[in-house]
Write a structure and sequence with these properties.
It is a single chain. A 16-stranded antiparallel sheet has the order 16-17-18-19-20-21-22-23-24-25-26-29-30-31-32-33. With 697 residues, the chain is an alpha+beta fold. The protein is built from 11 helices and 33 strands.
Length: 697
């Protein structure tokens, strides 16, 4: 007994000595969380930070918050030990976390559902039974792991499922989760009362707003009499009415939906009551967060100025226009109330990395050993002017280029672009393709003048000159001419662009479309007309499924009309990320012809081509949001109707599928492409891995 008491006294004394060794009210010089992958997220919830004064109570609270956060993520039985280490007159704290076990959802039970099946009700839940493919984002549907903090929201999601189908009387009980800690599995039970589905008896708009045509609005409403009530359509109606009224200057307008239910006949009459209040004018535009971009550059993209009448669409378009510049990682545009009829427009921006200075060596899938150096900036000195100098040298190619673009000369709607370049490309093919290797060098320059038309369109005209030199090839005679002979090209250029996307690098909504026109024949040797279309449509699903899935459709089409002489170098080829149809070597998909004397095959190129791509992109990096995983399917077609001796008289088509990692790196956008050719032919040259830099996603 005496021995036991002595041991306890010794433990107590050691504790006193340890506490005495710690500085009283000492500042915390460092905090570290070990044993977890998401330490950064836990740092945000522990309630202490570097510089705070140390107390045992703060450490205990931090331990409890770590356990609580991990339980919310489905981990039970977590233990946290805190090590306090004196550092001179301060302390360093290390939290050693031993994660508990994850609870798996074994079964979800619904009691009382007669009209809607359990599978329909469970579909949108976070806490639901998983499948073997649940881990796959979107396709797998999620589920499997218990997320207790989401249970109240799951209750609301079930109620939402009923409201989307007209069940206005539906009630959902609080969820009951039973956990079996012997096998770490849980059952969740809901009790529901469904009632009957309601049809819409009538929809009315109440409230006079000067300038608002109620009859026209009636036709735009999504809820229609005689149809089953749907809460999603109700929200669309409310949003539409807010936009229409906001565009008339009523920033503080209220739109309240009033319901009159007929429980006997199961119908509902809906009245949208509008209270417009006073018209609101812009008092001032306040720009914050711009550490580089000059104020006047930002203001050129803002559609509301002091004294203007408030306009909802102008406010939304301002945000998109600023995001499209690529100058900013984040843009927030919000009204700040000043009085009953005045607001300040607050424009908060977070500067993006628009410039880069890089150099190095590397190895590419196509170009072999490479040396490169480049300096570029889309926003030189914060003026909005773009400039770049590129020096790339590889085993099979080199590219030296200098370019300059001012999108708003002297802050007007006019633009100026110019550039010079010198490049060389060696085309070497696998032996089984039977293609003849060759090298082509290009030297030239260009300039163009343009003007912005409206908010989303831009038109330009310009001129280019190119000197093309073929060498390291076997001459071939095609109809008395040599398509691989050197030539000079003098061209008149034109372009028309439409862009209403919401971001420069990663658009989630909108359309980008550009038509390029070229007439070669203002002197020089080449004589032809070229028309080229690039089109892309983006659709983000986050508002619908609460997940940042982006669907993309891209089209690239081109047509060349021969007007005397169209060299091979001006023809289209497909293959690779640059030319379209990933999974095939760059420039390898093309009509060919054979030299009857030597039997050698030559790339003829095509004067008509179409490439379609469908992509689905999901986030990989949930912290910085700079990395995404994108699955794709490419389908391209090409043919040559100019060279009469080509082997393929009709369309050649190729398809591929695969995935790419998109990284918005400090050096610019980087794509790592992993592709699989679907309908590969025996003579095709494939490329299952490729990487590109500098292209928008």
């Amino acid at each position: 007994m005496i021995k036991k008491v002595l041991i306890l006294l010794m433990i107590g004394m050691s504790s006193l000595v340890l506490n005495a060794a710690l500085p009283q009210k000492a500042p915390i010089t460092n905090i570290e969380i070990k044993g977890v992958d998401d330490a950064d997220k836990l740092m945000e919830v522990i309630g202490i930070k570097k510089g705070d004064l140390y107390t045992p109570e703060k450490v205990q609270h931090a331990k409890e918050m770590i356990i609580k956060a991990l339980e919310a993520s489905g981990y039970y039985g977590t233990t946290v030990k805190a090590e306090i280490q004196p550092v001179h007159e301060s302390v360093a704290i290390t939290f050693d976390v031993n994660k508990g076990q994850k609870i798996k959802i074994d079964k979800v039970t619904f009691v009382g559902n007669k009209h809607l099946s359990s599978s329909v009700l469970e579909d949108n839940l976070v806490n639901k039974k998983g499948t073997w493919f649940s881990w796959i984002p979107i396709i797998g549907g999620g589920g499997g792991t218990a997320m207790p903090d989401q249970l109240p929201y799951d209750q609301m999601r079930i109620r939402e499922t009923y409201l989307e189908r007209g069940y206005l009387d539906a009630k959902v009980s609080e969820p009951l989760m039973k956990v079996d800690f012997s096998n770490y599995k849980a059952d969740v039970t809901y009790v529901v009362h469904e009632g009957e589905p309601y049809k819409v008896a009538s929809v009315k708009i109440q409230g006079a707003v000067p300038g608002l045509n109620i009859k026209e609005l009636d036709e735009e409403l999504h809820l229609k009499p005689g149809k089953i009530f749907n809460v999603k359509k109700l929200r669309k109606d409310l949003k539409m009415l807010h936009e229409k009224i906001g565009n008339l200057g009523y920033a503080y307008a209220q739109v309240e939906p009033l319901f009159k239910k007929d429980s006997k006949n199961h119908t509902v009459s809906i009245t949208y009551k509008i209270v417009p209040h006073k018209k609101v004018y812009i008092n001032d535009v306040i720009i914050t967060g711009n550490t580089k971009t000059l104020d006047y550059v930002i203001r050129r993209y803002i559609y509301l100025a002091p004294g203007d009448l408030y306009n909802y669409t102008d406010l939304e378009e301002t945000k998109k226009e600023l995001q499209r510049t690529g100058f900013f990682d984040k843009v927030i545009v919000k009204p700040q109330r000043v009085s009953e009829n005045k607001i300040n427009l607050i424009v908060e921006v977070t500067e993006a990395q628009t410039g880069s200075l890089s150099g190095g060596v590397g190895y590419g899938s196509y170009d072999g050993f490479m040396v490169n150096a480049s300096v570029s900036d889309r926003n030189l000195f914060g003026t909005g002017i773009a400039g770049s100098l590129t020096l790339d040298y590889g085993e099979k190619s080199h590219n030296y280029a200098l370019s300059f673009t001012d999108p708003r000369i002297f802050n007007t709607l006019f633009s100026l672009s110019m550039g010079v370049y010198d490049s060389k490309d060696e085309y070497e093919y696998d032996a089984d393709t039977n293609l003849t290797d060759y090298t082509v060098s290009r030297t030239g320059g260009w300039f163009s003048f343009g003007r912005k038309i409206g908010r989303h369109m831009h038109a330009s005209v310009g001129y280019s000159y190119t000197d093309v030199d073929y060498h390291d090839y076997t001459p071939v005679d095609v109809n008395g001419t040599n398509p691989y002979e050197s030539y000079k090209k003098s061209s008149l250029l034109g372009s028309f662009t439409f862009d209403n996307t919401d971001d420069y690098y990663v658009p989630r909504e909108g359309i980008y479309s550009k038509i390029n026109l070229e007439y070669a024949g203002l002197g020089g040797d080449a004589e032809f007309w070229r028309t080229e279309l690039k089109f892309a449509a983006y659709y983000g699903m986050e508002d619908l499924i609460d997940y940042d899935l982006i669907w993309r459709y891209k089209l690239h089409a081109g047509y060349i009309h021969d007007d005397g002489y169209t060299p091979v170098a001006e023809m289209y080829t497909l293959g690779g990320a640059r030319d379209g149809v990933r999974g095939f070597a760059p420039g390898s998909i093309s009509p060919r012809y054979i030299d009857p004397d030597t039997g050698n095959e030559y790339i003829a190129g095509g004067n008509q081509m179409v490439v379609n791509s469908i992509e689905a992109s999901i986030p990989l990096d949930m912290i910085t949001h700079n990395m995404r995983l994108t699955g794709f399917v490419d389908y391209g077609m090409i043919r040559n109707t100019i060279y009469k001796t080509v082997m393929q008289k009709g369309w050649m088509d190729r398809a591929s599928t695969g995935a790419q990692i998109e990284w918005k790196s400090p050096f610019g956008p980087i794509n790592l492409v992993f592709a699989y050719p679907i309908n590969k032919k025996s003579q095709d040259d494939t490329s299952v891995f490729e990487f590109t830099m500098g292209s928008k996603f």
